[in-house]
Write the structure tokens for this entry.
Amino acid sequence: MKVFFTILTVLLISQSYATEYLTKDDFESKTSGKKAFVAFKAPWCGHCKKLKPDWDKLADVVDIVVGEVDCTVEKDLCAKHGVQGFPTIKYTNGFGWKKYEKARDLSSLEKFVEEELGDSCLDDPNLCSEEELEKLNKYKSMNTDEIHIRLEEIETEKEDADALFKVKVEKLQKKYKELQEKKNKNVADLDEEESYLRYTLNSNKEEL
């Protein structure tokens, strides 16, 4: 029995996962130009702890970089990636980072990697549709300056889209509040009328 527990302990200690623990010193070298899925976390975060088992399993079954960043240590790196809550999960196909906002269970994570980070037109032109080839050729015809200008425009357009979204949400929230207040007043008026009616009905019964 003692031997069994000794072997079990060794196995548990030696168990390792393919998860990359990234820092500001190696983040670029380990993710630049590669397909990567990175969770920006904090040790005290409950949702991060819940994610951990499936995140480690994901790292063992996919052929991309699956990494973690401890934001209590790598504060500058997390700030650079706009991390404001934990966990924040971001991904890249090797050409810019995007925020992952879907389900975090293993099945959903695997499906996302397969569909969004699997082999694509950017990996192999033979996989391109006619429409994708047309786009690819269009961008290949641009010179370096034109590409940089368009990338800057895209960043500005993203910021504008985000700002517009926030303005519209604020308007919707204000409208929702107004509608809710109107509904509450209508219900209160109806409740008052109902009380008077029931009182009158009971009074009439007593008189009879």
Summary: The radius of gyration is 28 Å. Residues 162-208 form one domain. The mean pLDDT is 89.
